[in-house]
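To the structural biology subgroup,

Please find below the input and predicted structure for ATP-dependent DNA helicase RecG, which we are adding to the shared reference set this quarter. The sequence is reproduced verbatim from the submission form. If anyone notices a discrepancy with their own records, reply to this email rather than editing the shared folder directly, so we keep one authoritative version.
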Amino acid sequence: MPGSGGIKAAPALAEKLAKLGLVRPDDLVLHLPLRYEDETRCFTIAEAPWGEPVQVEARVVDVAVQFRPRRQLVARVRDAAGDELTLRFLNFYGSQTKQLEGARDGGRTLRLFGEVRSGFLGPEMVHPRYRVVDAEAPLPDALTPVYPTTAGVSQTVLRKLIGVALADADLGEFFPAFDTAWLARHGMAAFADAVRYLHHPPPGAPLAALQSREHPAWRRIKFDEALAQQLSLRRAFLARRERGAPVLAASGELGRQLLARLPFALTGAQQRVVAEIGHDLQQPHPMQRLLQGDVGSGKTIVAALAACRAIEAGWQAAFMAPTEILAEQHYLKLKAWLEPLGVRIAWLSGSLKAAAKRAMQAEAAAGAQLVVGTHALIQDAVDFAKLGLAIVDEQHRFGVQQRLALRKKGGDAASGAIPHQLMMSATPIPRTLAMSYYADLDVSVLDELPPGRTPVKTKLIADARRDEVIAGVQAAVAEGRQAYWVCPLIEESEKLQLQTALETHAVLSEELEGLRVGLVHGRLKADEKAATMAAFATGEIDVLVATTVIEVGVDVPNASLMVIEHAERFGLSQLHQLRGRVGRGAHESVCVLLYAGPLSETARARLKIIFEHSDGFEIARQDLHLRGPGEFIGSRQSGVPLLRYADLEADAELVELAHGLAERLLRDDPAAVARHLERWLGSREELLKA
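Predicted structure (tokenized):
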């Protein structure tokens, strides 16, 4: 198979190359330049444009080490037209001084590459790259590529290795003639032409189009990369389809009983998604579905109805959430809904005392029908009697291994059957991202909010006007409402965050004299946290000072005011989630974003987006644009190969084309699929098995 051997290099160099992801010759072929330098032509000193990288040829006329204003090597050079240029080296070796003196004494020519700018003595170059050449030395016949690199791997070494890999590689097409015609029809250059052009663009190649990755050669590379990702994800999807899963056939009676007890009816979107999940759970292969919906769209009841189906079919369901406060809220809500219907529910979290934890583990092993908890669910000591459905809330907060560990807890080891999996996310995922990064999942979207949700007004207020905000809180409480006050986010330290929460609580207790001010944070014991939340829910607390532990899942309809202090420190998704804690009742709700200046460009952009938009999908789209996909979905820990070259927004059309071709190739030409994946991913495809 092409490029399947290792790179021929000394062990120390091979180790450094591996840091760059360069292990096979194919990796070198696909290690494409970040930018280019044009050394295919030389300017005279007089004609050289200032402020951009250029090449000039000249002879050394003087070399000196100067000591003022600091130690530096200074050389004067003169070109054939008689014009002079100063070269200045602030960091230099003795060997450089000797080399330049040797060039002066031997009348040799220097080929210099750098930016010409104004200096004390006229035009100068600081730290130019230079080579001593013979007067008639030919100029390069291609632009000079500049590659991504790491300490200890020079551009010269990379260029040499890549040159060897290109000469030896099989750069032919892997596709049948029909598909190469299809590629040409969609404006794709031949792979060999595209990759050779990008490594060695000819003189006069359009630098701007190459560096912005808009050149036709880039189009082919980006398409092939997107195709490898689509093929890999869809192949993982189909491999899972070949595994067995329990057929959760049920009459739906338990779900109907639950719906009959609820004070609300399902929205059309909820009914549609419940039907999609119900269909999946009756299949003999594992459901792998992502349920996404904006804040307050009603994902929990959908998950509860899925659990009802598993329970009614005689299997267990597990519900895992990333934080104790969220897991506990789910537990209390599900308990209130399902225990009256005779469902046995167990609660498992890290903070339970040892005896209580053992009792709950025994419950799970003995067949508790629904087990709700945090990461504690995936500890070795936890065994399920008959797990048929795993529900993971806020799935992007869990790593691949954690999601996988829950799935391994159930099913039937003898037959290789595994539980169905429902993953939920309140961070809406833009369509191109879903198509690219979640191509191995079925995606359901709750795109409709339940009736009775009131729009939340967002206000941006500088912290210099804090007194007005305090007055606003007092006025809201006087009208019988309640308020959240969210402490500033301090990522670096949980201790600092706790200290800030305590200080904020103390200050607000003074400023809001006469009001009942509560405090909840991540370091509180579970029972203290639950007691505070319960007191807030029943109206015994007027203002709840909180860290971001209230970000998801908290539901207090009477709370109509949310103040987020130092809003500029929060991400868009967090701000949107926090804002979603109000507007859950019939009263007009307000979210105040208190910010401290001066704002960075990014912080200003984030606050503008959250101020102007309330639609989670639009906010997510803008967030993706601001941060890029890797950071947006944490894909570096999710196991999905990141797109290095294609851009999800700019290249959405290529992702769509790749999506379509991937389905056909998987069906009709598995050999071409295997070769394409070997070229692009090699062993990295194993990442997708989760």
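Summary notes: Residues 42-138 form a domain with the OB fold (Dihydrolipoamide Acetyltransferase, E2P) fold (CATH 2.40.50.140). The first helix runs from residue 11 to 19.

Regards,
Lab coordination
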